[in-house]
Amino acid sequence: MRNLPRFMLAKIAFRSFFLQSSWNYRGMMNMGFLYAISPALDRLHAPGPAREAAYLRHLEYFNTNPYFASIVMGVTLALEERLSRGEITEDIIHDTKEGLMTACAAIGDGLFWDSWRPFVAAAALAFAFGNYLLTPLIFLALYNLPHLYFRFFGIFWGYREGTHIIRSLRQFQFPQIRQSLRYGTLVLLAYLVPNHVNLHTPFLLTNLPIEYFYFGEKVVQGIGALVLVSLGTVAYRARIDVLLISFLLMVCALVLYHWGILI
Amino acid sequence: MPEHLTASLLIALIGGIVDLDSTATWQFMISQPIVAAPLTGLFLGNMFGEAAAGLKLGLMVGTILQLIWIEQLPLGMNVPPDAALASVLSVALGFIAGHGYESYSEREVCYTIALLLAVALGLLGRSLDMFVRRLNTGIDAWVSQKVESNQLWAIAFGHTLGGMFTFTKAFIFCFLVVWLGVEPLRYFTSTLSFKHASGFIVVQGLLPAVGFSVLASMCIKDRREMRLFIGAIIVFTLLPAKIWLGIGAALLVLYRYGWRSAAK
Q1: ipTM computed for the complex
Q2: Which of A123, B59, B100, B143 has the largest count of CB atoms under 10 Å?
Q3: Rounded distance, CA A194 to CA B234, Å?
Q4: Same domain, A234 and A123
C-alpha cells in the first residue's frame, strides 16, 4: 500500500536538483537529502518525537552520485512508509540507505562522470572545432537526456521497487554501456587529434611541390599531433600536473617558434 | 552607468549562476567550459554589439578549457579547479580587454593571455570553494542543534543559506576580477612585441594537445586499445577532415561494442 501521491514524488524529484547546495565536510549531502525528502517525512510522520526522529535520522552522513540520489530517496521513502506503519525498525532504513548510496555512487559515477560526460564532451568538441555555434546546445541536450531520466524516474522507480531496486538496476548492463562509450570516445579523439592540433612548419612550403603541399601538411600535422599527444599522455600518466604540462608545452612552442621551426 | 561597470556586473551575475550549476544546484552542466564560455561570450558580445564574435571566442576558450579539465570532477572530498569561473573570466577578460584593439594578432594574444590567466584563477576558485564548504560545515552543526530542539524549519533555512554562499562567492569574485583585471591585461598585451605576440597564437593552436592527452589517458586501458587508437588516427589523417566521418565512426563503434553486445 503506497500513500505518497505522485505530485509529492515529483516535488521531491524537483527538490533533488538542490541536493548539494549545502555540501559540507561533515555530512556531505545530508542537508540536501533531508531538505528534498522533508515534505514526504512531514506527511508520513505525525508532528512530535516521530517526525523529529525521522529528521535526525536523515541528518546523518550521506554521499552518492547526485543523479542517482533520486533512486535512494525513493527507496528510503518506501521504507519510511513501512516504518510509520510499524512494519520495520529504524536500523533497516539506516543499513539500506548506506548500502544503496554506495552502490549508486559506484554505478552513477562510473556511468556519468567516467563515461557519458567524456563521450558527450568529445562529440561536442568535434562540433566546436568545426565552429558550429549550436555546440553548447548539442552538449546540453545530449548530456541531460539520461540525467533527467534518472532524476525524475529514479524517485518513482525507487519508491515502487523498494529494496528490490538493485536487481532492477542490473538490467541496464552498465559495464557494457561504459565500455562502448569509452571506445566511442576513443574514436572521436582519434578524429580530433590529427585534425585539430594546429602544428605548422615552414619547411614544407619551401621543400614540397605545391600539388603535394596540402597532403604533406596534413600528414606532418597528423604525425606531429600524435607524437605530441603521446608525450602528453606519458607525462600525464607519470602524474605530472596538467597545468605544468600546459606550461612546458607553451615554453617549447615559444622556443620552437623563435627558432623558426614552427609557424 | 559606465560600460565597464555594467559589463563587470553582467559577468558577476553569469558567474554566480554558472557556479551554482557546477556542484550546488541543478548540475545540468551549464558550468562545463564548452557551455559556460560560449554563453558568456554571447551575452557579452550582445552588450558590445558583437554577438557572433563573442560566441566564437567563447567556443574557442570553452574548447580548450574543457579539454584541459576534462578529468576534474567534484567527487566526494575532491574539490577540482573551478572550471566554470575560469571559463567565464577567461572570455570576459579576453573580450573586454581585446575589444579596443584593431589588429587581429593583438586581439588573439589578449585572448590567449586571458586564457592562461583564467587557468590560475580557476585554482584560486578552488580555494574559495573549499572555504564555502567549511562555512557549510558550520551551518550543518547549527542545523543539527536546531533539529534536536524540534525547530525543523532550520533545515530549509540552512540549506538555502549554503546555496546563497556559493552564489555570493562567485558573484564577488567575478566582479572584482573583471573590474580590476582588464586594464593590467590590456597593458601587458600592449608591451609585447609583434614577434612575441605571434608566438602566443602558435601556443593557442597547440594547447588542445594537452587536453587530448588527458582524454587519451582516461580512455586507453590496454595495448589493444592503444593499437585501435593509433590505427584510427592514421585513418583519420588520410581521410578528409569532415566532422560527420568522426561522429559516424563513433556511432558505429557504439553500436558494434555496446548495444549489439548487450542484446546478445
Answers
A1: 0.93
A2: B143
A3: 8
A4: no
